[in-house]
Amino acid sequence: MPTGKTSVWETLAPRNREFGPGTVLKAFTHWRLSKGPDEIAWLALDRANESANTLSEAVIAELDTALAEVEGMGAKGLVIRSAKKGGFIAGADIRDFKGATEGRDVEKRMRWAHGLIDRLAALAIPTVAVIHGYCLGGGLEIALACKYRIALSDAKLGFPEIRLGLHPGLGGTFRLTALIDPVEAMTIMLTGKTVHAKKAKALGLVDEVIEERHVENAVRAAVAGEMRTDRGSWKSGLLGLAPARQLAARQFRAEAEKRAPRQHYPAPYRLIDLWEEHGGDAKAMQTAEITSFSELLVSETAQNLMRVFFLREKLKDSAKRESGIRHVHVIGAGTMGGDIAAWCAARGLRVTLADLDHEIIAKAIGRAAEFYDKKLHSSIERRDALDRLIPDFEGAGVAKADLVIEAVVEKADVKRKVFDGIAPKMKEDAILATNTSSIPLEVLREGLAFPDRLVGLHFFNPVAKMELVEVVAHDQASQATLDRVHGFCGAIDRLPAAVKSAPGFLVNRALTPYLTEAFVMIDEGTPKETIDRAAEDFGMPMGPIELADRVGLDIGLDVVRMLKNNLDDPIPEIPAWLEKKVETGETGRKAGKGLYAYDDKGKPKRASGASPPGPEMTDRLLLPMLNACVRCLREGIVEDEETLDGAMIFATGFAPFRGGPMHYARSRGAADIVETLKRLEERHGSRFAPDKGWEALGWEALSGQT
In angstroms, what is the C-alpha Rg of the chain? Predict the structure, then answer.
């Protein structure tokens, strides 16, 4: 259903949500308690002054008080649910633990919280969690402490703690592995992925999946003991034996190493150790969970990953604006344009997709259908998304669109020609956005009658995985236009990073010295596998050679040429072999061959036996990137370090456990970085000269000494 058009049921849904009897017996700050004539108590969580429910210490303490009230009222059963529209409980409030340094203090607080959750689990009456929307982390642990779990069809359940450098800490490790197939339970916790209601029912994680109108009857059935539950698994019995757990644990560790190296991300391995040693002994596992969680929480990795969480929240907050965008017209159905169109349609927008080559449009629709089959959870969702994605062979959609996104070849004259053709057809309030990856908007706006409504929306490839969008402003763009495109990013579940128009903007400006230094190393005879290993050892998700192939050598070449022609940055000369590869069509992963050759699954074919990276190789790759980041701050391309760090993490995968490039600079110390750059400058040339922005930012601030 297109955004902005609401069904009758959606309009009435909040009124029809079942919270139990209307008379509130006791209203706490965050909870409200009621009881009906059937003697069933209802406890609704509505955290004060927050848009979503999270578990703070105050919320948990009030739950303890509310449970005492329930115990004293002679209720036959207890229902726990959320009064928030968006979902059940989004997890613990990590603001309570930000900056924690003492594991013993955390452990004391966690033992207290466990005692309260155990009280809920020990209630003598049937307890029912009614779950809609998100049910994550500590919220799922509250639900697991109930005897029954009833989910609405929109419920999403999971343990995302692993992404914060943690594992579940309020009983999830032993309650989930006891409730469902332990292998499935461990997979849920180790991946941090959510499961939708239908799969949760199949796993035994929830007992029923129903619609809102059936909640009251389902609750009564559960309290009366009439609800059928399918719990337990033959694997639970088998994996209660230590040898079986040891075998499974080895497999879990092998899988974890592929995604999260132990030296950078200890949490998965702590969770595996926990289960291997104590699986089947709930009390021992609970004690070990509390200690392990507390130690992880105060670690540098967890604290940095919490910082990443708040960086994400800051970018999300900047998208909380009204866009008024219901119809998007995309021009250019290649990989980027087609995938942008598919994503927007999946997020509820009406999309028309145009291209001069009708066959390319057909291929884009085919890719979209494959994507929807994999990622959308019902046939109705898939059908509706495809209905919203409209092939536009005549380009008629441009006249009706609220937002037109140009995604043609990265050449200024071609883009301006497109603008000339569509500008007279656009609505008076429609926004024109370019997906250029590097061309300054001052160049593209030449001759445009409404530069105030021109903006850059730079998506990253692959669109469905890369959360960041650079929102590129120029000095003639109106604030209303910028506000609307920020809101558009929020509507399609993307993170907008505000940057100013300049060659390469922020991300490509910072990535270019990283990639070009890798090219210099190739010319020096260093194996590409060794170069990538140096970056991966630092914590990058992939090395610069594989990244260049992933971006596309043709796109990378265009960016480097443009930056060399328009900036004073000391960029190395473009290798002749790079230009030759692009000329012959060896443009990277999308072509099946670039700097690497690729198999039919898109994985690079690496040579074995490459030498390990030398001691200075990582600094040669990473410090030019940090130098460029500082230069962008000095030039005002990006407003602050938080936006910069968020952009580099969510667009390039910059080692998240390090908290972002500028945070890494703070931790390492600017003085050390500058001295290292000077040594590299002496050995390798002026491209390593420290930018004067280091001094402008202040040694003390960057060294974390203030």
Answer: 27
Residue 217 designated active-site: no
Structure tokens at 283: 């009390």
User: Are the beta carbons of 346 and 372 closer than 8 angstroms?
Assistant: yes
- pLDDT digits over 332-343, tens only? 999 999 999 999
How would DSSP label each residue in 300-313?
HHHHHHHHHHHHHH
Amino acid at 328: V
* Closest listed residue to residue 393, CA positions, set 423, 364, 433: 364
Q: Judge whether 608 counts as a catalytic residue.
A: no
- Selecting among 184, 470, 517, 586, the annotated active-site residue is 470
Active site residue 358: no
Name the active-site residue from 299, 435, 437, 438: 437
Which H/E stretch holds residue 114?
A: helix 103-121
Alpha helices in 224-350 (DSSP H): 234-238, 242-259, 267-278, 282-297, 300-317, 335-346
The residue from 114, 278, 329, 458 that is catalytic is 458
611 among known catalytic residues: no
CA distance 45 to 49: 12
pTM for this entry: 0.90
Kindly name the residue from 508, 517, 546, 663 that is annotated as catalytic.
508
Spell out the domains of the chain, with CATH numbers in brackets: 8-298 (3.90.226.10), 328-506 (3.40.50.720), 508-636+669-703 (1.10.1040.50)
> Mean pLDDT, the chain, as a whole number?
93
Strand 127-131 relative to strand 77-82: parallel, antiparallel, unpaired? Answer: parallel
DSSP at 150: E
Model pLDDT, residue 434 = 98
d(CA 572, CA 569): 9
CA distance 31 to 390: 46
